[in-house]
Amino acid sequence: GISVHTRTAAESIDQKGKVVRAIHRETGEIRDFSYDQLVLATGARPILPDIDGLSLSGVHTLGSIEEALGIRKEIDIGRRKVVIVGGGLIGMEVAESLTERGADVTVVEVKSHILPQLLDREMAHLVEKHLAQNKVTVRTSTTVLALSGDEEGRVAAVKTSRGDIPAELVLLAVGVRPNVTLARDAGLATGPLGGILVDETLRTSDPDIFAGGDCVENRHMVTGAPIFAPMGSTANKHGRVIGDNLTGGSTRYPGVLGTVILKIFDFHVGATGLNEQAARAAGIDPVTAVTPGPDRAHYYPGAKTLFLKGVVDRDSGRWIGVQAAGPGEAAKRLDMAALAIAHGIPLEGIALADTCYAPPYANALDNLVHLATTLENKMKGLSDAYTPQEVKEKIDREEEFVMIDVRTPPEYRESRIDDPRNRLIPLGKLREQMATLPKNSEIVTYCKTSLRGYEALRTLRGAGFRNVRFMDG
Amino acid sequence: GISVHTRTAAESIDQKGKVVRAIHRETGEIRDFSYDQLVLATGARPILPDIDGLSLSGVHTLGSIEEALGIRKEIDIGRRKVVIVGGGLIGMEVAESLTERGADVTVVEVKSHILPQLLDREMAHLVEKHLAQNKVTVRTSTTVLALSGDEEGRVAAVKTSRGDIPAELVLLAVGVRPNVTLARDAGLATGPLGGILVDETLRTSDPDIFAGGDCVENRHMVTGAPIFAPMGSTANKHGRVIGDNLTGGSTRYPGVLGTVILKIFDFHVGATGLNEQAARAAGIDPVTAVTPGPDRAHYYPGAKTLFLKGVVDRDSGRWIGVQAAGPGEAAKRLDMAALAIAHGIPLEGIALADTCYAPPYANALDNLVHLATTLENKMKGLSDAYTPQEVKEKIDREEEFVMIDVRTPPEYRESRIDDPRNRLIPLGKLREQMATLPKNSEIVTYCKTSLRGYEALRTLRGAGFRNVRFMDG
């Protein structure tokens, strides 16, 4: 059977004696619980930023239902000027719900774009635009320095690196931290991110003690590195693995991809795996593509746009991440991507997958199928465009190719790529000088905006040059 | 470049000379087109049932936009009594759209339930109920014998094996057949299902002739058998494979799962892979589970029920099919299932997948995750219930176990399982006779409705018997 002891706080673990000592919160009674196997599910709590003014009235974290009810009450009695510190997942969800309750919300984010762990900059910008349309003010690249109050001890303003923001209510949403006091005091190992260290069976450094949920560190399935990913869905799955292993099973938890989805007004926003920035930080050379498109047949009533961004490891050809944003359906594409990444389904496996098709649900080629196809083309070099970054890398690798600057001589004089591969042939002169170009080398054309570069590519291809690209952007 | 010749019908293919002879539909001009490689995309056309009355006015197939416009016109001038012959995908889609246009629709299906290729009976029954709620009459197990008309040659009734159905408009939706005349006349091989035979590169029996879309047979990814699955999404993917292979690539089309989705009023209905019936027909011993559940957090506004049915191959443990029906979101679950089936992702890979979680999109355990978990439990024998079929198989395998009929002696006398394993111990006598039961053999309890059987299981487990199941249903 199951006995539940409420208002009873575990104080310490005696690993040798296999006893948990607990104290009753009201009576103060101390009680020892002996165990054969023990499970720690101590969760996480909101991080408090290291600034002055946290104890002012009107400053809240987002860790409990009591706090949520308190915040709602303050809004309802007219405290409408709300500043949310932190533009992550929780900050965004709260920004939406308080705006819909009538609040005037400003989100302050220290990084250069919102949802920085989730999205690359260009995807985040789509979301920032949507927030602005819904009257949420977003201040990025802005550090909160302190909270200041009035004479009555109520918060009045948020002092930031970019000036003061008036505030009647301040919500701290800068993340959560695992609760590991009990585990650490018992001498259980914790990881580099501060969570309890567990193996794939979710055993801690003491094999008779399991831990799961927000108090542990997970393993990232792409990088293999530790990741702190406190999600209810992950905690649920931990529960199943622990339950199975407690009763003699040998289930292994495969790790996480950091999959997240959230609704922000009419946008569905999410990601799974690594974004481009995180891929580069992990030493991966990414190939990326962004594919906007309708989320169902474009002629079907209610079709909405979804932006997908895919990230592939250039060396292995493996999917490593997908991001989604827009009013179009996103969860389906992210969940398919999560399976593709976790199970090493190649791009072609998605590009040719037998997915659901009917006008109310998808195009004949689903958005993720289209993304896979686009990434495959890029991987096969079938795309006509190089990014400036790619051209730079070709130069760095000392590849042999010819660059043709098709701008005008005055533009060329003003600024140019100083490299022996580089030649100036203004677009108007391309036909007459074409004979001087090597037929067997790769040619990369470029201009200022890429328009003339693309025209030069078409001209050269029309004249029989096969290995021509243009530099994009 | 691409030249398009409209109103030009290909008449014959000269494979040796590599020439297609075509005729202009208006001028009658004959023209030969020579080719290096040729692609056939001749599509499919509606099957006409072999019955009298097809030429009556008011009888339509569903093969062209002209026909669709004609049908709409007839509805709009007041011909509201519509009989749709065929309860498959197209029949259902048309039933919905004509009902919404004001028609009074009856669907006649020869099989015992609608969507017979897609759904097992219990799943189809959910859809039939929903059709009835939307005033569509469904007549299953009903064979259309003939169409009868009035003096003016207009259709007036559909004669069936179960009586006449008055009709002002009859739509024939009994399926489509590949157009293979051109291919067959040229001597290209066709398959057992009547489609053009192609290999994985989508080459026909002549390696310089490709074929794709509704005119070819596909390979089913689970059974490896030929399948005729005319879907726009498949045709699109064929196009990509052929395009790549025409230009020197070597892309292989992996085959199909028969994935289908359709909207029927407020229901989302679909399937991928094999249903239970198809699995048995293919000689597979299936383990199945049906899991109804809300499509997002049950407390989130707009949460709707989705029924999922999963089919697993008992021997290999592999997913082989998933069906979905209900007002809840279905496409996401089917697409994930399609990937799991195609790429051999084990049940555990879905049960522990890092899928999207937020209340507007899913439960902490997504519906498909829940289905995978349930199937895993069944595969591991962790489910408390045996189906009658499973008990029969245990007897057939001559397994050693004890069956306890916990009904009353009168019920026992009326009908019983005649098998030496079987014992009558009425529920009320179970405690006193318990000592006579073997502690080490498996015990299966049963009654009439499974209620007393389950109570007996609880009683025995409470008394320390560990290996007890009950027979369900």
Describe this structure in words.
- 2 copies of one chain form a homodimer.
- With 473 residues, chain A is α/β, with parallel strands linked by helices.
- Chain A folds into 4 domains: 8-44 and 178-246, 3-Layer(bba) Sandwich (FAD/NAD(P)-binding domain); 59-175, FAD/NAD(P)-binding domain, CATH 3.50.50; 266-379, 3-Layer(bba) Sandwich (FAD/NAD(P)-binding domain); 385-471, Rhodanese-like domain (Oxidized Rhodanese, domain 1), CATH 3.40.250.
- Chain A is 26% helix and 27% strand.
- The first copy, chain A, has 13 helices and 27 strands.
- In chain A, the strands form 8 sheets. A 5-stranded parallel beta sheet of chain A has the order 6-13-7-8-9. A 5-stranded antiparallel beta sheet of chain A has the order 18-19-22-21-20, with helices on both faces.
- The longest helix of chain A has 15 residues, at 232-246.
- Chain A is globular and about 95 Å long.
- The first copy, chain A, starts with 7 loop residues before the first strand and ends with a strand.
- The mean pLDDT of chain A is 94.
